[in-house]
Each structure stands twice: as structure tokens, then as C-alpha cells.
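Why run this: before we spend reagent on co-expression, it is cheaper to look at a predicted model of the complex and decide which construct boundaries make sense. The entries below are exactly what would go into the expression plan.
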Amino acid sequence: MVNALDPQNMNSFSEASVSVEIETEDMTLNIGPQHPSTHGVLRLVAKVDGEKVHDVKPVLGYMHRGYEKLAEVRSYPQITTLVNRIDWVAGFSNEIPFIAGAERLMEIEVPERAKHIRLILNEMARISSHFVFNGAYALEVGALTPIFYAMEDRERVLDLIESVTGGRFHPNFNRIGGVKPAAGAGPTSKKNIQDLPAGFYRDTKVAMEKVIEAADQFQNLIGGNEVFKKRTKNVGVLTAETAEAYGVSGPILRASGVKSDLRTQTDYLPYDQFDYDIPTGENGDCYDRWDVRVKEMVESAKIVLQAIDSMPSGPLQAKVPKVIKVPKGRTYVRAENPKGEMGYYIISDGGLGPYRLKVRTASFSNISILPIMLEGALLPDLIAIMGSLDFVLGDVDR
Amino acid sequence: MTEVLIKVGFLAVAALNGAIIFTIMDVKGASWMQRRPGPLHVGLRGFIFPLAEILKFVQKEDIIPTEVDRPVFKWAPAYVMVSCVALFAVVPMSPTLVVADLELGVFFALAISSLGTIGVLTAGWSSANKYSLMGGLRAAGQLIAYELPLILAVVGVVIQAETMSLVGIVEKQIEWGVPFVVGGQIVGFLIFMVAATAEMMRVPFDMPIGESELTMGFMTEYSGIRFLIFYISEYMNMFILCAIASTLFLGGYHVPLLPTEWVNFYGPVVLLTKTAILGFILVAVRWSQPRFREDQLQNLAWKILIPASLVNILVTAIMKVGF
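The model came back. C-alpha cells follow.
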């Protein structure tokens, strides 16, 4: 026993330094599948040290519905109902690449008017999807009010989609060779059967002006807020190289500074006839991802306004056989959806339905970046980063 | 004995009513700012909404998970509520309408106000839930960060009033003719309000609850009446801290130009009006601001609020000695 108070021992004690390191263990925190901020049933197994996140593993599959397999036992017109439900926030956009793929295999030329209607509804779906993002993202960083504004504004756009297609979320509106006769058209009048509902142009103009107004409001209410800036600027920075390496697409990729937009790069819809910008970010942080989406809303509204002014007349349907059989072959059609690149790889053996359908969804590839972005983030940042990726679980698991 | 009982009864009823009024204010403010007609529909244009809310929670099952530390888990809500009610004891509604005019009233208020955090911490710890634990620890971290600016902001008032009794502080403001917020304590008032917002865990400092990341923070495992107690305590705390702020900085139960001999009649009305105005500011902030991050709150407290309040004390002291 050494007596610490003995003056002879004092020196050695004063020279001794404390070299005890407290052994700490990381806590495993299960975020999800039931959690308010995981947009459904995503599960993140996070290793956290206090508030600091050391390691994140996303666990998928809680919402797997087997759409690819289901598609093999359904005919082409039936599959549109299925694919509607992949990304339910923008149901209409899911139909387009699938229908375009089938049409390409059948070598059908779609009438211009049908293409324009598709384009308008596609942009409306994009706007409504970005409205949801805006509200939900504000909620995730703790602001409770903007979601109510966003939902109210989105309702105007959904009303328009409903007036044309009959459905708010799952329009099931596209047909191979064109679009379904509009819901608002009278069934008895042969003359009106192939037209948009009465007052559609006028209502759309009003609604799109409102969208531009709403985007401006969001820029002030959310983007101009100091706390929001503090929470999102320089948080979750994603460089263009990493984003491209992981197959990230859509607004997330553009926020990192890559000017990539399939609307201009492919010709699945006549986007080249319109004049619009592709907003990009500089830093690739959460703020830029939010900003790019708000700006995209404005651009989409502009496209819709132009499309209404230059709407061609003509039939809504190309001539297609009564029983749709797609010739043998394979094709891949990709499209710029609100969440990013969506593609369908269709293999047809000449039957009523596809032999195999592979769905490439944006959210699935986009969340593959999560473990890298969340390394070393704080727990509140985890939510902010996850929210800024704007994924939908139906789009991840299919 | 009767007097004590009457005082305790008054205390409980007044604090509870204050909490209910603030609940109405919060709900109405929210629905107004969010363009939501919902809260108009529960009877009398929505004004019995809190009653419906209370009845709803009372009739719900009080679930106690098996893994929790039962006695601690059960008593934590009571702890939070008692600390809120006790805080109200020193707030004077008029020179005579006060439960206890303590000589060290300010000291008592500041000491009691930090007790509630122990309830929050124990609730988080005993819940046997990782989210609850993190919420509780955040509350504890927050307490240390903002309690200091809260106290230092009040020191300026104490120096200026030369007393720690809350009645004495109000009397001093009557004597001066203007409330302290005009008479030199504007910085102290702002610091006090920011720190008090953190104390009552409201947006933008509601990290211990942080519903988007911690589901419901320290309250996650609570349900039924125990959740209700937490819920009511939050509004009670808001009501009482606003009352204390109006007493310390806004002249309490008196407004300039009103005759002081009638103060016993108009005192409570004046104090409640001032409290409600402060409360409305908090409501407006809550429904328009996102949430700070925990480390940003610490930065704000240690790098801005504490130095600012120290400078405030220095300036107040110099003014006091010099003039």
C-alpha cells in the first residue's frame, strides 16, 4: 500500500499522468421500420455514439410487393394499374416509361395531342411530388407549418389531374397508343369524347400561376429562414463524382452540380419543343437539394403553361389492334421522374404480357448513397439528409 | 391551516387554468397560421377543445411497458408538474394577491424552474427506450446550456431593483415609472426569453422532444393520463415563465399611468394580459420556425447568450454605481 500523503511519495504521484480511457460502446439504434421520418417502412440500423452516427445500414424489403413478378402474369394494359403504385406520390410518371417501352416494341407512332397531354400530366405529377417533398422536408427539420401550405397547394394540382384522369394518385390514364378519353368528356357525345374536360385550360393556367406563387412563398418561408439554413447548409455534402459513381439521379444529382436531365437527353415525350431551365446546385448539400426541387416546380409550371398554349389538335389514340400483343424483342426506356431516373426493361416473347419486366427506380439507387453520406453525421442531420433524398418506399421496394 | 389550503388551491387552479388558456392559444394560433379549420369544430367555436383533449387522454389506457423502472417511470410526470406549480407560488398578481412573497423570490424561481428537468431526465432514463434516453440526455445538456444565461439575465434586474423579492421588483418598477425592459434591461429581456424558450422545450429548442428524429423524445413511452400531465406541464411551464418574464421585465401587475391604489383590482388582469402577449409571441415562433440542432443550441448559449448577459451585468452595475 502506498501512502499518497507521505511527502516522499508526493513527487512520483505528481508526475503520474492520467491515462485512463473510458471504454465506451456504440449504441445500436434501430431507426424504423416504424418511424415518423423514414417515409414508410425503411429501417436504418445505426451505430451511434451519443448523437454521432458511426455506421448506418439500410434494411430494405419491408414493402416488397413483387411487382416485377406480378407483371409477368398480366397483360400490358393491366400492368399500367400496377406501375401506378410504385412511386405513389407521382403515380402518373410511372406509367409513361412503361407505355413508351411497349409502344416502341410495337412501333406505334403516338399522336401529338396524346403526347402533349401526357407531358402536361407528367409535369403536374412532378409538381405534386415536389410539393409533398417541400412540406415533409420542413417537417423533418422541425417546422410544422409548411406541410399544410404544401398540401393545400398540391390539392389544386391533384384536382386537375383528377378532372382529366378520374384519379388523384393512381390515374391509370395511359393506353398503348395514346391516352384514355378524358373523364370529364360526356360519354354520349361522339364529338367530345376525345377531349379534355371543359375549362381545363383556364383552370390549369390559374393553378400554374399559383404554383409559381407557392414556390416563391416556400423560398421565403423555408429557404429564407435562418434556422433552416443552419440546419441544411453544408450538411450532407455529396460530390458530383460520388453521386455519379453510385448511380444517383434526378434532383439529387443536379444539386451536386451535374446538369443531367433525361427530359432533354431522351425523346420519350416532346420536351424539346419547350423552353425551360434545368436548375442545378453548387455545393450538393441539403439546402441545394431542397432549392433545386423548388426551382424545378417553377420550371415545370412554365412547361405546362407553354404546352397548353401550343396544344395540337387531333386524335388521342393511334390505331392499335383490339388484342394487344407485343412482338418479340427487348427494350429499355428511361424517363426523368420526380425522384430521378426511372426505367423499364421489357422482354417480350410475343405474348399478351411481358416475359420479364425489370423496373429501375430512382429511390432505390438514390438511397444506396445513405451509408456514405451519414458517416459521422449527427442524429438530427441523419434525418435532414435522409429527408433531402426524397425517396418513397414504394419506389425503393416495388 | 385554512389559509395555506386556500393558497394551495388557488395555486393549482390558477396554474391549470393558465395552462388551458395557453393550450387554446397554441391550438388557435396553429390553426390560424396553418389555415386549418379543424380546431373550430369542437364546441363553442373550438374553445372547449382542451376539455375534449383532457377527456380523451383520461379515458385512454395508461400503458406501462414491462421493462421500465416502474416507480421512477410513474413519478416522473408528477415531478415535472409539481416543479411547474411550485414556480407559480412567487408570482405576484398584485401586492397582496401572491401565495408567498419570498425575500429570495427570484432565487427560488430560478432554482425551482430547473427542477423540472430532473423529471424529464428520469422519464427518459426509466422508459427503457433509446429514443427516450436520448431525449432525456438532450434535456439535461440543454439545462446546463441555458440555465446560466437565464440566471445571468435576471442578475441585471436584481442589481437594478436592489431586491430579490418579486413584489419588490415590481414596486421598484412602479417607483421608476417605466418597466425595466424600457429602463435598461432590453438585452436581459431578450436573453431571458430565448433561454426560457429553451427551458420550456418549445420550438426552436424542442430537441428533447424532437418528434422527427426521436419520435416523441422522453415522452415516447408515456400514454394516457401520464402523457397528459407532461402535456399540461409544458403549457403550465410556458404560462408561468411568461408570467415571471412579465413580472421581472414588463412591470408585472402594473402599467404606468394607472392609479396604484386600485392595483388589487386591475393587477391580475394586467399581469395576465402581459403574459398572454408574451405567450402569443412564443406561439408565433413555434409555428413558424424549424428546430435547431443540439450543438447549435450549445453554441448559441455558450458563445452568444452568456457573454452578452455578462456584458449586460457589467453595464447595469456601472450604471447603478455611476448614477
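The two ends of chain B are 47 Å apart (CA to CA). Chain B has eleven helices and no strands. Bring this page to Monday's planning discussion.
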